[in-house]
Amino acid sequence: MADDLLFERAAGVATITLNRPDKLNAFTTELHRALAAALDTVEGDETIRAVMLTGAGRGFCAGQDLAERAAIIAGGKVEGGKALETWYNPLVRRLRRLEKPVVCAVNGVAAGAGANIALACDIVLAARSASFIQAFCRIGLVPDAGGSYVLPRLVGMARASALTLLGDKLPAEQAAAWGLIWRVVDDDALVAEATALAQHLARQPTRALALIKQALNASFANTLDEQLDLERALQIKAAATDDFREGVAAFLEKRPANFTG
Ligand code: T3D
């Protein structure tokens, strides 16, 4: 249903809101389809220079809709990897490779793939009342949507192991203290702060921000030598942009830069 996802654009920012509040915005096939279409729009519209992703109601996203999955189980057609192959893996790859920054405003509980989709975004803000749950083990599944990749890298193996093997709730403030997310803000300030951050990013040199994402995405798998070579290659591209010229001119003229992306 189209209303399962809200899409608004203003001031260079596309705001995407998961909108199944009664079910804590759990992912159905329809919601996946709507999100993929929204990201198509984001990719194709050069006036959109940043994204803000959030959820409606008291949850951010409770991961896979288990009622939808139960219907499939009841029909005897369990295909463990299908939803990952069709929806979750492409979504995580798209968020990481999107050449525009994505701010995630985690407004409430983020569980299962919902938690890991949030962690696939570039800058994660969370409401003070929000929480993160690697809920997979509670239902006999393994972490997916990139959880087993990012968690050890973000918080270390000891914490990643406990989070994924126990499936306990991690409060937002603890998540921030551990470096899982950027920061926590008061609940009633979350949307305004996340929107302001996304609007700030939309005024920055978009091409350079995309190249920064590319550098960070490669960093964990690269040796120092490989990363230095990559930085050089990306710097050649960044230095060729109008925004680099504008940034230097604005600095020397002691005025704000007018980046055009
Ligand atoms: O094949 C594949 O698809 C593999 C891919 C898997 C990816 C995954 O994400 S697997 C993990 C799936 N998610 C979960 O296991 C989390 C399930 N939800 C919960 O454990 C709890 O809802 C929370 C801890 C997140 C929040 O608890 P609480 O007490 O605050 O809320 P609640 O009462 O449990 O939920 C409120 C409503 O949302 C409720 O509906 P109702 O009874 O009022 O009509 C509940 O059933 C519904 N809901 C919550 N999560 C889901 C859900 N409905 C369907 N699917 C959900 N994941």
Describe this entry's structure for a reader:
It is a single chain. The chain has 11 helices and 10 strands. By secondary structure, the protein is of the alpha/beta class. The chain has a 6-stranded mixed β-sheet with strand order 1-2-3-5-7-10, sandwiched between helices. Strands 4-6-8-9 form a 4-stranded mixed β-sheet. Strand 2 (13-18), helix 1 (29-44) and strand 3 form a beta-alpha-beta unit. The protein is globular, with a radius of gyration of 19 Å. The relative contact order is 0.12. Ligand T3D is lined by residues 23-24, 26, 62-67, 69, 80, 83, 109, 111-113, 133, 135-136, 138-139, 141, 144.
Distance from N terminus to C terminus (CA atoms, Å) equals: 34 Å
Helix content: 40-55%
Tally of DSSP helical segments: 11
Q: What's the gyration radius in Å?
A: 19 Å
